[in-house]
Specification:
CATH topology: Alpha-D-Glucose-1,6-Bisphosphate, Chain A, domain 4
CATH class: Alpha Beta
Structural class: alpha+beta
Strand content: 35-45%
Shape: globular
Number of strands: 7
Largest sheet: 7 strands, antiparallel
CATH superfamily: START domain
Strand order of the largest sheet: 1-7-6-5-4-3-2
Number of domains: 1
């Protein structure tokens, strides 16, 4: 089991941060590993929405579909994928962090299929570094507006 969480404070209002980060179409702009996103269900985003992602991780191209399982606009969202070598659940939460600032938390949990527990221990620090880099990129993009 892997459970990695990181957060950052972005100097922008929560509605703006949640609106941008919570729109899956924006993911390739701030996630370094995500190369493309395609809607499998009709927008707008709602519980049950499904989106196909193409990502690169450890030199491999991964294709997977996330289904959105929880959605509280402006507050949190949770998406889950069951297929592929690394079934994952991703949760975003947004909280006010002072005047026109937002604390965004990004959490990924999952159980690597066919991998040993040791592989999960190796993957967690790699995921944490990637997640911190992605949140730093999101912060940079939004604060430059």
């Amino acid at each position: 089991m892997v459970d990695v969480q990181t957060e950052t404070v972005i100097s922008r209002p929560r509605a703006e941060v949640a609106g941008y980060a919570g729109d899956p179409s924006n993911a390739p702009q701030w996630y370094s590993n995500i190369k493309s996103v395609r809607w499998e269900t009709e927008p707008p985003l709602s519980v049950g929405s499904r989106l196909a992602f193409v990502a690169e991780f450890l030199g491999r191209t991964l294709e997977y579909t996330y289904e959105f399982t929880e959605l509280a606009p402006g507050s949190s969202l949770t998406m889950r994928t069951a297929q592929g070598p690394f079934p994952m659940q991703t949760t975003y939460t947004w909280q006010d962090a002072g005047d026109n600032a937002t604390r965004m938390t990004l959490r990924n949990t999952g159980s690597p299929a066919g991998f040993s527990r040791l592989a999960g221990l190796v993957m967690a620090p790699m995921m944490r570094r990637a997640m911190r880099k992605d949140l730093a990129r999101l912060k940079e993009l939004l604060e430059a507006r």
